[in-house]
Amino acid sequence: MTLYEFYNKYLSINLNDYSNIGIDLEISKILFCFLVGLIIVTVIINYRRASMILIIKKLLRHEVLSEDKAKTLSELDADNFGTRLSLRSDKRLLQVVKRAGEKQYTYEEYSALIKSKDFKEEKINFEEAKFYLNESTLDDAKKIVDVPAPSVVNTILFCVLLVAIYICIILIIPELLNLINNLI
Questions:
Q1: Is there a smaller number of Cβ atoms within 10 Å at the N or the C end of the chain?
Q2: Which of 38, 43, 40, 1 is nearest to 154 (CA)?
């Protein structure tokens, strides 16, 4: 028996099977897509969180606490996709980790800048860009690092838990639908 046949035989729920409900919809496919989405989001969030903690730990370990001590990602041995993505878009990380030579704006200045027609977000050259921890946000950096990074084992266990909950829901829904169908 293939996985597809097993899914159709045991885990497929079609509302068309219940005459009083009158909706032609397969709930199991919607729930399956929801499950896959939750698993993907869990993996991405944990990967980005681990990358954020990695770059801050490396900067703290090398005591890069001012712009003149700034180092590249290669020098910190933290040059990977997750770190680059976090340094590009993670607002919390960007408040703590600064790029050497980058102009610092106030909220009002930045708001006016992005509203101008000729504004383009500056592209970061990660081979040459140097990063450092701002002295004023050092406490925030330490708070981020104090929270333990998500481990691969915890991520896998959480995904397995999601699959178990999905299977329980799929096994309970037909009974609930029978009850609703008989009440109507």
A1: N
A2: 43
If phi over 0 gives left and psi between -120 and 50 gives alpha, with beta otherwise, what is residue 140? Answer: alpha
pTM of the predicted structure, to 2 decimals: 0.72
Q: Is 46 exposed, middle or buried (0-12, 13-18, 19+ CB in 10 A)?
A: middle
d(CA 97, CA 70): 10
The one-digit pLDDT tens for each residue of the chain (184 residues) are 787 777 666 667 766 666 666 665 677 777 888 889 999 999 998 988 888 898 999 999 998 888 888 899 989 988 888 888 888 888 888 888 888 888 777 778 777 777 777 777 778 888 888 999 988 888 888 888 888 878 889 999 999 999 999 888 888 877 877 777 777 6
